[in-house]
Please model this.
Amino acid sequence: MSSWKMIAALVCILPFAAQAQIPVPPPEPAAPSGPATTPAPVQVPTAASRAPVAAPAVAGPSPEKFLDELYRPYLEKDFKGQPYWEASRFFEPVLAAAMEQNRKEADAAGKRPALSADPFVDPRDWLITNLEVAASMTGAGATGTVLFANQGSPTHLTIELLKTPAGWRIAEIRGGTGSLRALYKLN
Model:
């Protein structure tokens, strides 16, 4: 292979080889050149041919699956509730930060935080049956509906979700007792 062909091949391959972790062979020693050797025409790669190849989209859980995994354990009789005080596990960053700040301030003042009951089921005590979870995409986010009976009383929650780098997170919960964002004065 002539030096020109090797250079052209490397210019085309190297941007992709590093990304795809393809081993690039070392260049072959240059062939003797003489008056009869004419380099072949070189194709100059275009910007489009050098652009990195997009990685396949990582399919994470759907918003409905996120909600189902959050709520399904509440059907178990001895379930003690989700650790909602680990706010970043469940809530989008702005809401999580407000919840954590409120909790720190309440602890420092020896008071109860604004949220003193499980936000996922609304009251302090529960016996959840007849769980139904649904979600639909809404632009960059999703809206979820969670229906269940709590100690025989029907409960309907509307949950706004945002897709974050960490996955789906809750941006709002609205139910019979109000709005989670309003509780933290984020509206």
User: Anything to note?
Assistant: The CA atoms of residues 12 and 48 lie 11 Å apart.
